[in-house]
Sequence to fold (555 residues):
Amino acid sequence: MKFAPLLLTAFLCGCTAQGPLKSLESSLQKVGLTAPSEYTPPPPLFEGDPREADHSLVFPSMAQLPQGEILAADLRLVADVDLTEAAQAHLWQLNPHPLPYSGDLPVVTHRRVEKLIAYYTGNGRRTFRVWLERSGRYLPMMRRIFAEAGLPEDLTYLAMIESGFNQKAYSWARAAGPWQFIESTGRMYGLKNTWWMDERRDPEKATRAAAKMLANLHKKFKGDWLLAAAAYNAGPGRVAQAIRKTGSRDFWVLTESRYLREETKNYVPKLMAALHIARNPEKYGFKDLKLQQPLEYDVVRLPSTTDLEVVARLTGMPYKEVKTLNAELKRWCTPPSVKEYALRIPAGTTQKFLEDYRALPVEARANYKHHRVKKGDTLGAIARKYNVRMQDVVALNQLKNPRMLSLGQDLILPLNKKFSRLPKRELADDYKRSRRKIYRVRSGDSLWSIARKFNVTEKQLRVWNRLGWSNTIRPGQVLAVSKKGVRPPRKKVAKYTGPTKKMIYQVKDGDTLWGISRAYRVATDQIRRWNNLKADHILRPGQKLTLQVPVGHRG
Fold:
């Protein structure tokens, strides 16, 4: 039975009998839609990738579906009605919204979608609001890239589901950046990850890689964007296996099977929930959104390694903002191995920056070097090799025992006497890790079924939860179902807590805070606090320091 002609006939009859707005309301109600005052115009059918020959598989119209699939139990297709341009324009006027929304990806309502909408507008409201406001910074650029690639622009909301548009997001599975690429997949799509930079964190480069990957998945799954999105999360092999096992290519049918993880079953519904809210945020209580402004910048190519502190000084821009514009940079300078590095600077500052930069001697552009300790290295040999002072290396790296260097240890070498602590701080990991995943055991669960659900092994579950060889779990028990993120160890400084006496110490040539702290059994942060010294303070001969040293200690 053909439904499209009947719907069109009903729509036209209604328009003939009544006024334009009233007939529109009546006709929409006949096909199960809300009144115009609450209605957001339906997305036009996406025509698919122009490179694809078979567009009928992209998003079938209601006329192409078997009768039983039109209104499945808890799934309602949204508005497959061909409204006139005037009607669509009228509906847009009734329902304007501040968020980018094209309607080029069909949106559905499903019990999983409704559950997630309830969460995003309930307990998750505060976090979701942050995501919406942060979207203003990245969505314009992402939508432009997707449009250039021939992809639905609304598919860019996947970056919200992946990371909340967080450049430094890092998951328990070691996926990084706004599009959450793991290292191997990132490499496949041209994203490099080195000690100096991680291109997965660059919003523009990662978005181009995500567009390529989604286009490939779209082609693999014969024009079905929902399956392509699911495969972006679970991998094409797992989705293909679920299709083979169930005999269905309908994503919503796959969610009822045991062949997809719960995370994947909710992945597409998360996107649908986000799009429902994005096309009418006020309806869901997200009013007065303070969208962040899109990033604006110029790009300059630097012929030699340059410290970001130097860039900040020449542009008059705070160091943190330089790092924000260049999110892929993990350290304090541009990568030494990359010639003509493309650096982003504030829009409109190119001419002045280049003039000042060219006037700067090459040796003044980079004030630090990185050295990774190898077998046979000594501090003296390293200092001679790079023509730096041993005491400066000790002070900057806060070495407790200069004679005991560890293989693989990263050292920062100051090339002049006026150095700051910033490069040392930049050795720390600045990724924003997601929390460890947990699962509350339900009646009927087993270690085997939970391991299958979260794509881990039973042995891993035993190790993470200290279960030994026991298979016994009980309903309500909370289990860790992912490994912990690797965090840099915190360095603890032992502080003396016994009786002390006040003394004045006069700084000598070559003294460092670290050396003085070791000599008098106090911590460097204590010396700074006692003398109101900043973190990057440089000691000068003759300077007097107040110390609180242990009674009876002579240094």
Summary: Residues 1-97, 486-495 have pLDDT under 50 and may be disordered. The first strand starts at residue 75 and ends at 77. The longest helix spans residues 125-148. The CA atoms of residues 105 and 152 lie 6 Å apart.
